[in-house]
Amino acid sequence: MSQTVVISGAGLWTPEHIVTNEELVESYNAYAQAHNARHADAIDAGEVEALPQSSTEFIEKASGIKQRYAYVKDGILDIERMRPRLPRRADDELSHQAQIALAAAQAALDAAHASADDIDMVIVSCAYTERSYPAIAIEVQHALGIEGSGFDMLVACSAATFALQRAHDAIAAGSSKGVLVINPELTSPQVNYKDRDSHFIFGDVGTAVVLQPKDRVRSPHAYEVLGLKAVTVYSNNIRSNFGYLSYVDDSDPYANDKLFHQNGRKVFKEVCPMAADHLKAQVEQVGATVDGVKRWWLHQANLNMNQLIVRRLLGRDASNDEAPTVLDEFANTASAGSIIAFCRHHEDLVRGDLGVICSFGAGYSIGSLVVRKL
Ligand code: CO8
Asked: What is the pLDDT of residues 249-266, one digit of tens each?
C-alpha cells in the first residue's frame, strides 16, 4: 500500500567565512592586471588574450549576487593561488564533505523532532563528491549511528530535488521508514576564480531534509508531498570535465575545462521557458493552479532568471514573500538553493497552504515537488 510521504524537517549549515563581491573583484582584477603585465609582449603579438576587468556593478545587476560563503576562504583571494587551501585529511579523519553534511543533517533532524532511529536511508546528493568511494553518505550514516543504507548521487543543481524523489518513492513503497537527504555543496574547489565570467557565481553551504511516512511525523512544520517530477534534457552548455579519466587520457587534470564552465546566456534563454512550463504542468497535475500556490522555493542561480520564470508562470511579478530570494546572501549553491529558501521561509505557512520546491540547472535537469502544509 502506498504511504503518504511528508517533509518533516529541513536544516541549513552556513560556513563562517564570507567573500564579498568587492573582495572577489579586487582580487580577480589584480590577478588579471598581473597576468596582462606578465604577458604584455605575447598579448601585443596576438598570441595571448588579455584578461578583461570584472566589476561589482555587473555582478549584482546580472545575477543579484552580493556575497557568498566559503568553507575555507584562505587562498581564494591570493592572486598567486586563486583557489581555497583545504587541508588534506587522513583516511581515518572525518572528510570535509561529511563534516558539512553532518552539521546540516543534525539541523534537519532537530527540525523534524527526529533522531537516527527514525532514519534507515541516507542520500548525499550534490554537484560533486570529494571521492568516489566509500560514499560520503555511508560515512555520515556511520557517524550518526543510522542502521540501513546510504549512497551518493550527483545531479548538479537538481541533486536535492532528484534525491527527494528517490526518498519519497522509497517511503511511499514501504521500503524505508525515514530518509535523510543531504546536500553538502562544497562548490569553491570547482570555481575558476581566474575566469571573469564565472568567478562570482558560487558559494558553499550544506542543507538537509528529513522525509517520513505521515504516521511517524512529530514535527510542528510538516509538508505532505502531493506530487513530484524529475526531467533531464542533454546539454553541454554547463559542463565540467573533471573526472577519473584525467589520469589516463594525458590531459591536464587542472586545465580550465576540468573546472565549472558554461555558456550562461544560452542557459538563461533555454532553461527559463523549460522551467516555467515544467512548473505549470506539475502544479496542474496535482489538481491545483499556479495562483493557488502560496510559496515558490526556487533554485537560486540568478535573480533575473527567477523573476522571469515567475513572471511567465503568474503573468505578473512575484513578491519576495511569494518567491523568496536567498542568492544575494548565498550566491548559487548548486542543489542547495531551493532548500535554503525553504529552510528560511516556511514556518509562517498555515495548514493547507501549497508550496513548490524547484531546481533547474546542468544536465539540463529540472526537478520539482508540490507540497501542502499539514
Ligand atoms: N564583470 C564585468 N563584465 C562581465 C563580467 C564580469 N564579471 N562577466 C561577463 N561580463 C561581460 C561579458 O563579457 C559580456 O560582455 P560583451 O557584451 O562585451 O560580450 C557582458 O558582460 C554580458 O555578459 P553576459 O551576456 O554573459 O551576461 P548575462 O547578463 O547573461 O549574465 C550570467 C551572465 C550571470 C552568467 C547569466 O547569464 C546567468 O546567470 N545565466 C544562467 C546561468 C545558470 O543558471 N547556470 C547554472 C549554473 S549552475 C549549475 O547548473 C550547477 C553546476 C554545478 C555546480 C558548480 C559548482 C562550481
From this structure: 989 988 999 999 999 999
